[in-house]
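DUF2911 domain-containing protein
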Amino acid sequence: MNLKTYFLFLLLGVSSLLQAQVDEKEDHSSHVKSTKTAGKSLSPHTMAMAMVDVAHVHIDYSAPSVRDRVIFGGLVGFDRVWQAGAHNATWLSTDKDLLIAGKKLPAGKYGFFLIPGKKEWTLIFNSRWEQHGKDEYNEAEDVLRLTLKPEDLKEVQEVLTYEVNKTGEKSGELIFSWEKKKLRLPFEVK
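Structure:
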């Protein structure tokens, strides 16, 4: 084999190696894309907000779908902290103090977590709003914890949905609905 042929084979080998690395990177991004259907996320990022009196109340979350799965007691285990959505922790912000079940939630931005139970659920407002899932959740950073009984829905709520509704001059409610459960959290602007 002459020197020219040797360099040609060497160049082809390096080229193949570089292409394999590019293909590997493309495979990774196609894996990321596999969490999407027709270019859309299976748990799209969304938000709900409302002005209640002079308070701007905003909730930000990723909304998974049921997709024929058992959610509570299945995908989301009972008696375990859950980020109340998909991917990053759900967060709530308010620019005014709120009174929730007689307890003050100071103006600010909070991670919102739930602990679903068979009969009662714990709602948590945590000082660390920016976290991935529940990986960094620390109970010592909780600002407010409440216990509520969820309502049973007659029909399946396919996509996880939050609503922030004004119910009176200085009152509103945060509503969570998914699968066959609904939580209503009334609040007042302080």
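The chain has two domains: 1-34, 36-189.
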